């Protein structure tokens, strides 16, 4: 999947031999890359060049303290206020406010649209991102007209935890364990044979749900407040210490012992 973890610097011209090709899918450039017509692809940040031949995509893997919205990103947004046609939402401390149109929800009309108060957490997708415009969000798929898991997150036993942008991207990978080296959530859920969770969770694993935002935020929900705290700690410590799979197993076992 990776181009031998090639390290690139801003302004370098990427060798065309490293650019993936696909018969059906157009080339997709992710964060850290810019297309300069007619055919040059230039990094805008320093980091590791990553390619995915199956999806015909490429991007630069880097850790930044500032989230830059990209079309298609899944994000956790907080409603700050209600404008006449949209909600204004915060994505991160150093990112411009995003707009979430009132009708950008499944089945929404002027009468049935969700009534969101300031402070409401929303799981959304970046529908429009441009360097000269504020980002626009949506909670409905333009292709299917369905929410597909997006929308307001119900208030209750849940909490948002901050992680690095690179770690959030790894969590969002379709195969986060194989490609991203992150298996801590599977271990806590009892899906790793080397980690016994039953004694702590009263079953095959801890019962919890998560929503991961590309903007470096992870929402963890559970009926047990202890579980919420444990999962959040596991994520943040894995990120902070850059733990591999074996280190994640040791961390999970330690946290489960403390939970008991």
TrEMBL record:
Biological process (GO), any one: nuclear polyadenylation-dependent rRNA catabolic process
One cellular-component annotation, GO: cytoplasmic exosome (RNase complex)
Domain Exosome complex exonuclease Rrp40 N-terminal intervals: 27-66
Keyword presence, Cytoplasm: yes
Lineage top rank: taxon: Eukaryota
Entry GO MF terms: RNA binding
Compartment(s): Nucleus, Nucleolus
Domain K Homology: 158-225
Protein name: Ribosomal RNA-processing protein 40
């Amino acid at each position: 999947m990776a181009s031998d973890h090639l390290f690139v610097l801003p302004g370098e011209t990427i060798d065309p031999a490293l650019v993936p090709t696909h018969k059906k899918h157009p080339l997709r450039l992710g964060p850290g890359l810019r297309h300069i017509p007619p055919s040059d692809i230039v990094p805008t940040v320093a980091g590791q060049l990553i390619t995915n031949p199956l999806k015909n995509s490429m991007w630069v893997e880097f850790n930044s303290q500032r989230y830059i919205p990209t079309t298609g990103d899944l994000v956790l947004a907080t409603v700050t206020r209600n404008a006449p046609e949209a909600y204004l939402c915060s994505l991160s401390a150093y990112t411009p406010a995003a707009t979430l149109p009132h009708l950008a929800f499944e089945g929404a009309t002027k009468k049935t649209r969700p009534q969101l108060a300031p402070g409401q957490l929303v799981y959304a997708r970046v529908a429009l991102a441009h360097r000269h415009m504020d980002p626009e969000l949506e909670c409905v798929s333009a292709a299917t007209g369905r929410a597909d898991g997006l929308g307001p997150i119900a208030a209750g036993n849940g909490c948002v935890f901050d992680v690095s942008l690179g770690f959030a991207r790894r969590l969002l990978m379709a195969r986060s364990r194989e490609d991203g080296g992150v298996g801590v959530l599977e271990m806590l859920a009892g899906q790793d044979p080397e980690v016994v969770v039953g004694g702590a969770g009263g079953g095959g694993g801890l019962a919890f749900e998560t929503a991961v935002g590309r903007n470096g935020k992870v929402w963890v929900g559970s009926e047990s407040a202890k579980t919420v705290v444990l999962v959040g700690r596991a994520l943040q410590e894995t990120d902070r210490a850059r733990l591999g799979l074996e280190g994640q197993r040791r961390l999970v076992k330690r946290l489960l012992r403390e939970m008991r």
